[in-house]
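Troubleshooting log. The previous structure file for this entry was overwritten by mistake, so regenerating from the original sequence record. Sequence copied from the archived sheet and checked twice against the printout by T.R.
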Amino acid sequence: MQSAKFCPTEPVPSEKFVGRTSELYTIFDQIHDRGHVAISGSFGIGKTSLLKYIKSPNYWEEWEEKELNFSKALIVYHNCEISLTPQSFWQEVLKELKNEAQGDEDLQSKIDDVLKLETIEVRDIRQILREIGKRDKFLLLLLDDYHRIVGTQEDYTNNLKKPKEMQTFLSGLRDIAVHSTEGKYFSTVVAAFQKLDELGPEIPRGGSPWYNHYIYVDLKPFTQDDIDNYFFNPANENFFISIPDSIQKEKVLEMTGGYPILLQHAGRTFSKLKRDSELDIDVDIFKAEFKEQTEKILKDIWRDLTADEQNLLLLIVIDNSEGEVSGKRYSADNKDKVFERNRYKLKILQQKGLIYKNPDQEKYNFSSSLMQDLIVQKLFDEKISDPREEKILFEKFGIKFTEKQAKIVKKMHRFLCKLEKIF
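Regenerated output below.
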């Protein structure tokens, strides 16, 4: 059936993978030199599809002439979501490595010896890498959802046991990659929802930060050219989105924001509506169906943001609505100073593809109108039990008030100024 060509609920098959040319060049260079790459991007941006594509022969065929030989790589893909401890991590990786070493009984036997150990240590992994090197091969480790095993900085603050165990594991893995002689037989590509230096334990003073050893690759939503070439081009049979003449293409684009998973859902939704409906499809019918299918995705994207990033998005909604959202009034005084002080965080939000800056209006806008709708709903759901109560909306950014509180605006403004001095 036509809808089967869209795959919003699973990684894109390698034979249908499109785009990401620049990112793939960077990854190729690092694999070729046995370097290391850290991919970051929001939920649904295509991290898993990219890792699966790198594991496939389709990717390697493109680089054979540049001395990147598929037959020399033992490729292990591992989703860290199922890794509970460093021990279970290495067990799962080695089991998959054994499968990749089919036909090499000697190497498989040495892997079995390590798997039998009560505790797998760094020196045991180095031993396996030396064996791989003797065969003129190398291990390419693709780690998906790496943030689940690295953890957030809050995890290390709130859990006294985790820091020692995980710091030892992460230090060992990094030591294998960049400080050992076996590192020339080892390359890693990891994927997480944030940059590595924003995750994991705090680097001790004088310690080496992640970006000294990993090349960062930010996955962003597809550009307009990408969308035109891959999704609105009838010549591309893989993911061509057939939009009825009654619906403007721009209306669909402003809902998806260029997110690969949302574009896949858009294609699936149009296919479903055409198959199931005898009525003409208008933009409202599409939006209702599309929103129902993608609401959980948008909430997952929101969930993965830091508190400050969420607050900045709320402030952008207030700023763009001149302080009135869903019938409620909000203080937005000195918002320009808040934006100026948070330029780096706003840049990160732009890199994640959530917002862009309109050069004509000098305002930040949302890439996806549905994400904006979600944040408006977040504001609408905020409750004030006592209309006379002064309630802080943003702990660092401003104060929330209703129309009944308009008489105390001046008082709140003074309080806002004090907050900004602290911030």
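Residues 384-396, 398-410 have pLDDT under 50 and may be disordered. Archived copy saved in two places this time.
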